[in-house]
């Protein structure tokens, strides 16, 4: 069983940066596809970025050029560096993982979420 614990959320002004972290335990980290989703109030949970087994990455169009996903296999941690934040980035951000090579929109494991609020 994989456990995921996010950290790094907070309240920032538009244009600022934040880095989210997700510490994983209970599995062989480098065998998992990892990713980040977000859910804004009243909206569905949406895929933001993935770091897949083999090194390929995916970004939602809304965050391309501003967000960067990365992982440190030695620390069993995946990061989401968020730059040039906008009020529309406000959401609860969830870390996710799956044993599949490529993370899908229905991953097996979820973190508890961390709130990101961007003020205008």
Q: Supply Rg.
A: 13 Å
Estimate what percentage of residues fall within beta strands.
over 45%
The total of beta strands comes to 11
Report the major sheet.
7 strands, mixed
Low-confidence stretches at least 5 residues in length (pLDDT < 50)? none
Discrete helix count: 0
Terminal CA distance reads 40 Å
Structural class: mainly beta
* Helix and strand run: EEEEEEEEEEE
Topology:
Layout lengths: L2 E5 L2 E4 L4 E8 L7 E7 L6 E6 L5 E3 L7 E6 L4 E6 L8 E8 L10 E2 L3 E6 L1
Parallel strand pairs: 2-11
Antiparallel strand pairs: 1-3, 3-8, 4-5, 4-9, 5-6, 7-8, 9-10, 9-11
Produce a short descriptive summary.
This protein is mostly beta strands. The chain has strands at about 5, 10-15, 20-25, 35-40, 45-50, 55-60, 65-70, 75-80, 90-100, 110, 115-120.
